[in-house]
Fold these 3 entries.
Entry 1:
Amino acid sequence: MMTETTTTTTTGTLRLGTRRSKLAMAQSGLVAQAVRDVTGRPVELVEITTYGDTSRESLASIGGTGVFVSALRDALLDGAVDFAVHSLKDLPTYGAEGLVLAAVPKREDPRDALVARDGLTFEQLPDGARVGTGSPRRAAQLNAWARALGRRIETVSIRGNVDTRIGFVRSGELDAVVLAAAGLNRLGRIGEATQLISPDACLPAPGQGALAVECRADAPELAAQLAVLDDPHTRAAVTAERSLLATLEAGCSAPVGALADVLAGGPATELRLRGVVGTVDGTSLVQLSTTGPVPATGGEAAALGRELAADMLAKGAAGLMGERAL
Ligand SMILES: NCc1[nH]cc(CCC(=O)O)c1CC(=O)O
């Protein structure tokens, strides 16, 4: 831009809409600081309660429709806030009319983490160990992993914030719980993990560890300012993962794992995409991987996800997912 313009859309305090959980506040605080740094504008956090925060139903029963996201999107569209921060894995694969995904900042650790009693790793859990997770994706892969080790685990459906979930282990009610490493990192509690689970054993949820920064489509100046926070490799990776999820027509509570990572080194730099679908009991999994050049466009990244999903469907993925979301 050749001229300097001073309008209300590029100066003054920005209101950041956030969920009020400790984890959401930590995530939003990180983005708020980054936005202050790049824009020089004050940022204030506006707490918004979502249905996912108030409902005590299992996520598998209420999930798939953006339960953590809708209220934040409404606040954006109403003009109550200027931009919002979501966990990308909670964001529905369909976009929202009138909103843009202004930035996908550099991703945190995408892996799942085990928090077990007595410092145990997954391999050290005894036969019949009780492992808490509300995620069909984690249950499917952890059950399959246990079978491969020649034993069984009992997956127990739990919900709640990080304190509540780790509390089940501290109280002795469960032998272990599985949570996103990114959440523990952002809360400064990664030291409580007894194992970072290799994606070879358990692929994370599409978008896990990444954040989404959304604003209104009619605020292009703000979108351009927020875009400075975008990390192109993270955006390409999560675009491929979410395209795989969308092509499988699965929601965020379906037993679908996906992880794209940029393989650097060697003559070429490639994007690898791995995907898995399974039955919750872990008796059958369809797991496939593909690589392509690092996508230059969102369309190319999405194509990689669609292709892998088509291969998975050809191998029977649809039959393993049970109820498909719409
Ligand atoms: N399903 C809820 C949710 N959404 C995002 C995270 C963690 C942070 C992230 O993945 O970025 C969590 C908690 C968890 O899975 O342990």
Entry 2:
Amino acid sequence: MKLTEMAYRRVVVKLGTSVLTSGSKRLDKAHMVELARQMACLMRAGIEVVLCTSGAIAAGREHLQYPVLPDTMANKQLLAAVGQGQLILAWSQLFAIYGLHVGQLLLTRADLHDRERYLNARDTLNALLAHNIIPIINENDAVATNEIKVGDNDNLSARAALLCDADLLILLTDQKGLFDADPRKHPDAKLISQVVNIDDSLRLLAGGSISGLGTGGMATKLEAADIARRAGIEVVIASGHHPDVIHKAVSKEAVGTHFSAIENPLESRKQWLLAGPVTEGVLVLDAGAASAVTQQGRSLLSKGISAVKGEFERGATLQLVDESGKVLARGMTRYGADALVKIAGKHSDEIESVLGYDYGGAIVHRNDMVLL
Ligand SMILES: Nc1ncnc2c1ncn2[C@@H]1O[C@H](COP(=O)(O)OP(=O)(O)O)[C@@H](O)[C@H]1O
Ligand SMILES: N[C@@H](CCC(=O)OP(=O)(O)O)C(=O)O
């Protein structure tokens, strides 16, 4: 199939540190140019590419000649601050070979948390692509503290895919795809070539990163795949060193692990709810409310809340869990924590008399809720 006949219009390619360094301690520019060639080829065929690149910390270590530093947050930020410049310089030089400009977006979770900033970032991505410029995204590691960071580029790339309304997310790594066990520990593990549903049994197969290069391993790649496919985006996890891997993934050739998108994707605001805000608290639902919310698509009423955890204001995004602690949904609350503590377990009719005001019976309205 020719690239111009492809179903995909916009693709996010995520390159892990493991791919960019080819397992070494330095950026493998020879391989990066090959990846740039494949992406440039897509752009030429009219398929827009957004690159989500890791490697800032590795590039910083290389540039500073492998300093011996204690493993602290500040030192990682130092390495990222040095390395991000080197990384974007490398990419801009490599894409220039193919006559392409690049534009850098350094994001943190805080940029996605606020819907207005989220929409701003989306406008920037669209503007770059409209001018045939490749957006290059990384986390703004140099300023991101634990509270405001996404934390790993798998999740960041899924959020970028939602942000720019991509139709394919390609996660390239040092393994051929998702295996039924970590191939580093189980050499006889088998590649899973197709995934139609991400459930707890699949999550159990996906381990962390043990190479010392990447962050999160397959576990974060599965989280990313789950977010993307709920938004109607297909996902491929494959080896960044497989010949012509990007071209093959976009051509729908069998490569790595393919995740189908779900058929009725979430609408845009719910996509943001799923991927944008950090949750600030937890509502524990009794059995009746858990069933009403998950089985019948109902809003959450005060009567069904058995506990409230955390300090939060009205408008915060919360986790909704059942009494065993299983996360059922995330959603935006119409009442702050102080009020909820007073009305939890009470009938909707009592809200006004208990609080002296009433924002309505729905504590988390079903339009402000995403089931997980
Ligand atoms: N079920 C699995 N299938 C494949 N790889 C797995 C699995 N579980 C854990 N892994 C680990 O995930 C690693 C890839 O993730 P990571 O090290 O974070 O790389 P990257 O830099 O590409 O994000 C692999 O090297 C592998 O050891
Ligand atoms: N933002 C960090 C990478 C974080 C990360 O998730 O790394 P990886 O697992 O290699 O994709 C960096 O540029 O070094």
Entry 3:
Amino acid sequence: MCYGCGQIKASANWHVSANVAIPELHKRNGRICKRSMKRLGTETFFLFLLSAMAQRVPVSDVAGGSKRMSRVRVAVRLRPYMVKQDEKEEGACVKGLGPQNLEIINWRNSTETLQYQFDVFYGEQTTQQEVFLTSVKPILPHLLNGQNASVFAYGPTGAGKTHTMLGSQEQPGVIPRAVREVFQLVRAQETEGDDWDYTIGMSYLEIYNEKVLDLLSPSTQDLPIREDKDRNILIPGLTHTRLSSFSEFHTHFIPASLNRTTASTKLNHRSSRSHAIVLIKVVKSQRVAPHRQQTGKLYLVDLAGSEDNRRTGNQGLRLKESGAINLSLFTLSKVVDSLNAGVGRVPYRDSKLTRLLQDSLGGSAHSVMITNIAPEYKYYFDTFTALNFASKSKLIVNRPFVRETVSSTEPGKRTRQEKGCEATAEPQKKRLKERHREEQEAAPGLAQLLSPADSTVLDRLLALEKMMMGSPERERLNLLKTVAQSRREIQKLKEKQKELEEKALVFNAERKEQDQSVVTHKNGVETQKDTGLFRTNLPPLHRKQSTAAKPKKQQAVVTPLQVSQVQPLQQCAVVCKPLLCPSNKRKQHTKVLEDKENMGVGLPVTDTDWEFRLDTSVLEKSRTKILQVLNSGTLKDLKTLQLIGDKKAKLILGWRAVHGQFAQLEDLQKMEGITAKRFSSFIKANILSTIVK
Ligand SMILES: Nc1ncnc2c1ncn2[C@@H]1O[C@H](COP(=O)(O)OP(=O)(O)OP(=O)(O)O)[C@@H](O)[C@H]1O
């Protein structure tokens, strides 16, 4: 029976998770039963979706079914474990399970793992040769048939993208191997003696701070990106060098690679600060009429790594670069979401990177994505994000087609495509601008979606998960609004609490002064030490009885109590303390007053002090009441608790569904995102508020 809606299991249209904490859920039209969300609570539901994402078996390669479709092939490569990257000696958090599978610790519950399946998984021992032979070589022959192909390395900074794509002299990576293979394929065709001529050329560019820069003819000029009427992406002004041999490629490629912007960060001493794209163009021209011409392009892309600036230690220019890198990678993620959701408008134009990769994702290229990951724990969240991105990318289907023109010109003369697209781009300018504007309006910026640097890990993950799940834009915005609303509420409550504490402080100080003046007026022999402190701790009734002050003076003392009635902390301190243990409490109170005076305003000496000033029975009663709400409250009830907004309330419901009731209030700290500090604020705010009630 479906856990969400109670429907009886009938067909295969079900999701059964391997995760024991996740019940069976019913699926309708490929979507998971909506009621599950309500029943499971947000946390478990997310867990469920992640496990669904992680364990989804890839659909059979559509390329086999239809010649016109080719699914993006996704490989994951795990870099060898590096001791120097693991200062805390925590070991690895990722483990390979087989040629296609791997698992990673579940951040929500360290006793569980999340398992993923990809087209191929390359373990730490995999050689450059193996990666090339199994993932890249098979797509290269398409280039000679006028089709496009692309290989791109994705992953967090320091995970091995440049190693995979560029490699080193001893271990050359995908780029040199692929170019050599293209030359070999062409040579093989030429020796077969077909009636085609082949030319091979290269361009090399980097996208640095959202600028397209030519690496073969370095300059600071930002090159424009254009699209012709056949949706070919072109970059007018970009150097295109004709190559006659592989060694010629080398002579251009090596010095140009040194032009690429790299810098040292905390996570990688030679970190790529830009996305680098090598473009190899194979033009195949028929020698005889009708002089057909086919053009195949190979994009070899080494993406810059996603960066968490709290760990990279980036500042100044590095921070700006990082912002541009993260923004373009975020747009890449949005593009993948849109493609998976099948929405008409895909935001390719939101970044230069996606604009250039337009053909590789949802376009006409045969694409391979190599996701590089690092095993060390400090990369955990980056790895988790990269795996989810890879997981959703494997659902993208491209539609390769042959780019062929029948040229009226003799072979060897340049076609319009080879010359660039200035002529064709102009009429489309207006349309493109409009589309660009529409897309920008529809899509929220990174700043809106990703929490700022001070956001909690939980917020960040929830936001990421939401993005990973390819949710529609509106749903995503709603979540963000809810999160923003909860933050505002928490902020307001904090301010209110602070304000009340300030008032109480002023009140105490005033009353102390007044007490002194009352006593002095009544009995000039009594010292300040004997009377002031003790009297300050007495409830108004005691004071009235014991001092028998004149009505005028009494009024002066009693009036501020109107303040203390709305200030439970101070009211309780006044009522309970002298009755419990006068001498100790007196010392404590002196300290509180001194500290408050020193600080001017604010909290008591420590955040736990307030508890000692309450009567134990009152404290216990309040705690029981809060525990009751936590264990049996509905979403609405939970939201009546202080510092619990919609999101936290849902997390609590999720927790209850998985783990049962909270044995004690302290168990709240077992939930993700509830730190000891947050817990103590929660307890304080709620106990005080139950006392007021
Ligand atoms: N498969 C591997 N085998 C051996 N060493 C590797 C492997 N992958 C990566 N490395 C090493 O790890 C370090 C970081 O790798 P690399 O510079 O390729 O990361 P990156 O993902 O390109 O980082 P960034 O995004 O910051 O440029 C390098 O010293 C590299 O030699």
